[in-house]
Amino acid sequence: MKIKVLKISFLFFAVIFNSCKNASKESETVTLIERPNVILFVADDHGTDALGCYGNNVIQTPNLDKLASEGTIFKNAYCTSASCAASRSVILTGKFGHATGSYGHVHDYHHFSTYDNVKSLPVLLENSGYETARIGKYHVAPETVYHFNTVLEADPRNTVEMAEQCGSVLNSDKPFFLYFCTDDPHRGQPFEPDPWNAPNNFGNKPEGYKGVETIVYNPEDVLVPNFLPDTKESREEIAQYYQSISRIDQGFGKLMKMLQESGKANNTIVMYISDNGMAFPGAKTTVNEPGIKLPCIIKDPTNSTKGIINNAMISWVDLTPTILDMAKVNYKPEDFHGKSFKNIIAEKKTEGWNEIYASHTFHEITMYYPMRVVRSGNYKLIWNIAWRLEYPFASDLWASSTWQSIYRTNEEYFGPKKIKDFLFRPEFELYNLAEDPEELNNLALQKDFEKELEIMKTKMKEFQIKTEDPWYIMWGHDASLQGTGVNL
User: Bigger pLDDT: 113 or 484?
Assistant: First the structure.
């Protein structure tokens, strides 16, 4: 009789255990189904200057404008470094590059690489049950840190072809994270034009690209940003830049059409950003506004409010925690330098989002010029740590007809700035962006702003300590953040 009782008890607990196990599986399945898909679309060197929804009435970007009308435009979104590889490492880790070893370019002899103990966004999503896939420009290392389940192949200059390769991901049985990165509108090879005053092609080809309508712009019609000289050469290059962006827009439209056809549009968050500003002197590789203030358009289908213009200051260091938050992945906020802005995407007015930081050290390995930035409210402080050096040029920007047209003729000004001020910068630059959006009046040199300067310096030091910035040592040779140099 005792044996029978034991058998019945064992059978009872086995049924209960299996029921709980099956319920757990069902719960996990439901959780995975309820999790949103995420598409992060990253352009290469696209500034806010060349999008219809950001106020340009010349360029044709109807698909991106449609995304903006259905979602949120951030007007104060910033990368942390206006350099491709350095910026992308921040996008995918939620940490500043000075804390991860991602100081500059990855390819060829530059060879900067992220520390192998860093946990990246795709790895964290994969560990939580997501299908992770990438297509196009990668430009981060090592692969073990930035691992994706699926790598799709297509011409990164043909975004329509890129979109067509993404069908299997859009129809995945699991929630997916698609990292879609174009080569457009980066300058195209050859960087050195022949003749010298010919415009760069920005990836455009006379024969065009399969499936893409070639949209050509008249140089007389383009809008020349205030920081550039309004010359024949600038206008011709901007026209090529516009053409490359219109190609991006068509591929984006194709991807959105495929997403709609997959039946998953209502459960897919779509984000459009760029890694840094336009590839012109005065923007890319600088920490001036044209280099780091970028487009950010987000459509979250769970938000019913559309066409929101959000003025919160957000940063690419915030993207990883935000995406993890939206994907319902548990994480420790202290593991990241950024913070989630998920809860303010649908807000028109926000509080507490009025400060961002930037950190640039290298672009090419020959371009050592560390800069740190804090923007707090309307004030912006730039610390040019290597200020005694001549400001270095990216090889493609130096060869550009836009720069050469000024350099070869010994002009005094490049846009509104004197050439000498462009090449030789003071240690500190303090600007009131509300009154001086072009960053021309350096308040750091004025006695009346000594108090504001000290407040901003204090904020910068606190930021460097918090993010373990090795360049903190340059404040009075304070080595408190340095290691011992001894293997313990």
Answer: 113
Q: Which amino acid is at 150?
A: T
Q: Is residue 278 a contact partner of residue 241, using CB atoms and an 8 Å limit?
A: yes
- The residues near 299 (Cβ < 8 Å, ≥ 6 apart) are 67, 70, 71, 72, 269, 270, 271
How far apart, in whole angstroms, are the C-alpha atoms of residue 32 and residue 10?
A: 33
Q: What are phi and psi of 419, to 5 degrees?
A: -55, -40
Q: How many angstroms separate the CA atoms of 70 and 113, rounded?
A: 38
Cβ 113 vs Cβ 309: under 8 Å: no
pLDDT value of residue 369: 97
Beta bridge partner(s), residue 270: 39, 299
Q: Is residue 101 part of a domain?
A: yes
DSSP letter string, 359-380: EE--SSTT----EEEEEETTEE
Pairwise CA distance, residues 44 & 83, whole Å: 10
**Whole-number Cα distances in Å, 382 to 298, 332, 389, 445:** 29, 30, 15, 13
Give the count of domains, the chain. 1
285 neighbors 394 (Cβ within 8 angstroms): yes
Residue 55: CB atoms within 10 Å: 10
pLDDT value of residue 483: 72
C-alpha angle with apex 142: 163 to 155, nearest 5 degrees?
25
Half-sphere exposure for 337 (CA within 13 Å, toward CB): 31
DSSP letter for 280, please: S
Q: Domain range holding 188?
A: 33-369
Q: Convert the pLDDT of each residue in 247-259 to its tens digit.
A: 999 999 999 999 9
Q: Which tens digits make up the pLDDT trace of 222-279?
A: 999 999 999 999 999 999 999 999 999 999 999 999 999 999 999 999 999 999 999 9
The Cα–Cα gap between 104 and 335 comes to 22
Each residue's pLDDT tens digit, 174-215: 999 999 999 999 999 999 999 999 999 999 999 999 999 999
Residue 91 inside a domain? The answer is: yes
With tokens 């200051």, the residue in question is 313
DSSP 54-89: GT-SSS--HHHHHHHHHSEEEEEEE-S-SSHHHHHH
CATH of the domain at 184: 3.40.720.10
Query: Is 189 within 8 Å of 50 (Cβ atoms)?
Result: no
Q: Is residue 377 part of a domain?
A: no
* Residue 13 neighbours by CB distance under 10 Å: 10
Please report whether residue 453 resides in a domain. no
